[in-house]
Amino acid sequence: MSFAAAIRSAAGAARGRVTYDAPLAPLTWFRVGGAADALFSPADEDDLAAFLGALPREVPVTVVGLGSNLIVRDGGIAGVVVRLGGRAFNAIEVTADHSLVAGAAAPDAFVAKAAATAGVGGLAFLRGVPGAIGGALKMNAGAHGGEISDALVEARGLDRTGAVRILSNADMGYSYRHSSAPDDVIFTRATLRGRPGDPDAILAEMERITRVREASQPIREKTGGSTFKNPPGASAWELIDKAGCRGLVVGDAQVSTMHCNFLINRGGATAADLEALGEAVRRRVLETSGVTLEWEIKRIGRR
């Protein structure tokens, strides 16, 4: 079912850009997936609120950020895909009390750099997190001993009606790589708090994180973030390696030989190849270790 007519009606007064039958593969790190009925890039928060308020409730709304932790399935996405960008959503402002306000589209690495330059410690871990702040809020992203729940003061967003929602850290219901935030909230910015720090020491820590990532992860490939969550008391990559999945291939998708909790599109993979490869890995790990791996990469859309 196409929702194009309803979307066109709601988009009549939008100041942002609306693209119909919009290819989504170029927006993901894996470079796979079908098209969206419509892709909306709002001009600012007010524009997004007005659009959501005018959009009929039966039209699905999906949010896509930098696409680093995402597989869009080959059948594309029904309804509207919202993608934030531009100055209205990627600004980073350092404030008092070793805090900063970051737009949801601000890349995590940029937030880490802004914090370091201002002498705000405790946010260097964001240098090792692919993606943007909006996605980090949604999944409690983390790396190198830190996660967004350690720093979040409050998140601001809009619900499906276009109403502003302010959620505290406690409201987010955080756990490992998970939040209980309402599914219909589109985050627009977040207030993060760190601690006093020495800029040179923080930048040195970020450089160390960068070296570790480059040495251990296939970041120059068509890949995503970590494919599976670490089970309690175990490392996903070790279980995958033990199951003999390093280098495993389905179609043109492959388990990385460099870090086997990463999947790679070798050039011609489809979303179905990647998802089938991930499921094959899960089956083998269950057979060899009795552990059911949980996907960390989000898979959305029609098969």
The helix count comes to 8
- The rounded distance between the terminal residues' Cα atoms is 14 Å
- Mean pLDDT figure: 96
Q: Total domains, how many?
A: 3
Helix content: 25-40%
Shape: globular
Question: Which residues form runs of ≥5 with pLDDT under 50?
Answer: none
Q: Count every beta strand, where a strand is a DSSP E run of 2 or more residues.
A: 19
What does this entry look like structurally?
This protein is an alpha+beta fold and 303 residues long. It folds into 3 domains: 4-82, Uridine Diphospho-n-acetylenolpyruvylglucosamine Reductase, domain 2; 89-215, Uridine Diphospho-n-acetylenolpyruvylglucosamine Reductase, domain 3 (2-Layer Sandwich), CATH 3.30.465.10; 218-300, UDP-N-acetylenolpyruvoylglucosamine reductase, C-terminal domain (Uridine Diphospho-n-acetylenolpyruvylglucosamine Reductase, domain 1, Alpha-Beta Complex). Helices cover 27% and strands 25% of the residues. It is built from 8 helices and 19 strands. The protein has helices at 4-10, 45-54, 87-90, 108-117, 133-139, 199-216, 236-242, 271-289, and strands at residues 17-23, 35-41, 61-63, 70-72, 77-82, 92-95, 99-103, 120-121, 142-143, 146-147, 152-158, 164-168, 186-193, 195-196, 222-223, 249-250, 253-255, 263-265, 298-300. The strands form 6 sheets. The chain has a 5-stranded antiparallel beta sheet. The protein has a 4-stranded mixed beta sheet with strand order 1-2-5-3, with no helix packed on it. It has a 4-stranded antiparallel beta sheet with strand order 15-18-17-16. The longest helix is centred in the last third of the chain and has 19 residues, at 271-289. It is globular and about 55 Å long. The chain starts with a helix and ends with a strand. The mean pLDDT is 96.
